[in-house]
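2 proteins. here.
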Amino acid sequence: MKKGVSFLVTVALMVLVSSLASASDPSPLQDTCVAIDEPKDAVFVNGKFCKDPKLTVAEDFFFSGLDKPGNTSNAVASNVTTVNVEQIKGLNTLGISMARIDFEPYGQNPPHTHPRATEILTVLEGTLYVGFVTSNTENRFISKVLNKGDVFVFPIGLIHFQFNVGKTKAVAIAALSSQNPGVITIANAVFGSDPPINPDVLTRAFQLDKKVVSYLQSRF
């Protein structure tokens, strides 16, 4: 084999091996997916079993009511109305969902993450202070004050929040890059887990007095 041809073959093989090595599993659509041997015990196929396409109707792709404000009478003075595959069955496998977020004055959508989705948020009414924190070890805080018509992106998996800094109610619409984005509210997960995390763990992790940790756990 000529040297030039041999070199090209070697390069081609390297490219092939590299592409195979970089292959990965598809993103999960639920928190866990335990392998089972019996099909009769199956629960999810790509998030949901699929309806025969011949039997689909308009109602499978329809949701009504996003024009109505959510109930904000709660500790954080906000409400998230989700429109994902649980509300619109036709979203299954399509990789997109949305939500309406209502805020009372000084209400907030507290620090949280979406483990399976990037979020793009548009302010419809009011003024929101928003931000996210990049991953370790940089942990850089990136924030912005948004007004009506402004748009902001929260990268997948990063801790982020929205806070109404105005004296009037605020409304935002968010689009997310998963039919089932998932949400982990940081304070609820850490201090309100079931069963509770051992206070010794949180005392060391947050550098707090154990009594403070116990108090925080009692709040969630």
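next one coming up
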Amino acid sequence: MLWFGQPGPGGWNRKCLCPFPLPRCQHPQPSYGFPQVNEVVFSPGGSHCATCSEDGSVRVWALASMELVIQFQVLNQSCLCLAWSPRCCGRPEQQRLAAGYGDGSLRIFSVSRTAMELKMHPHPVALTTVTFSTDGQTVLSGDKDGLVAVSHSRTGMTFRVLSDHQGAPISAICVTRKETQGHLPPSLAAFCPWDGALLMYVGPGVDKEVIIYDLSQKQVVEKIPLPFCAMSLSLSPRTRLLAVGFAECMLRLVDCATGTAQDFVGHNNAVHLCRFTPSARLLFTAACNEILVWEISGC
């Protein structure tokens, strides 16, 4: 059981976070028969905490009342490690939990929607630790064989595996914010091939978006929201397609005619360059020292 206490007359008043018997599971248990609690993490604001245990459950508690408010359950698996997304990854209602399991799987749970957002399998063996990057966009996980996987928390793609500690269990992963020394995302602009009066612009600002400016009207006529700050931009010369590359190893293709968008992964580094061919049938993207060629259907 997990107890919380506060000073009281003559000592400490204690309150148990598990005031009811938990179901037995198939894993070895302490002598009193309750599943072992493996991790406790706290929300960035300090209003809630989350616990995980051998029975595969992840529980979220309100610290003010010590009441159970949310429970996620995975059957026939032990939940071994847990992490709460940082404050900077979004609004408070967008907070998420990353949970690692004995079969090597990693699940992302939405606290606000009380639902599993994503399941990935970055490890072949049991996870021992997990943490979010400081921006909440990346999940780092370690396993009992010493491998560290770096995965995208939105797409589930594992884009890097570190084996420097192979042979010894990973006990902890700590992250820190990178000092940017005032570096800002690039400012990018391009005229629309399908309408010479329109100019598309992306750059540093409060909102992550593509701004479409009409030169004849001398005003902004449309804004296209983006998930991250753009690193590269290209417009199709024959179709109303917009390609945007991001530092998060992701490429987004936007159909400006319908307003729909589709995301693609495949790079291991920031997509710093994207270019449509004159025929508009191919799209070249570059990240560090690699180039990917994408075929555009329907052109």
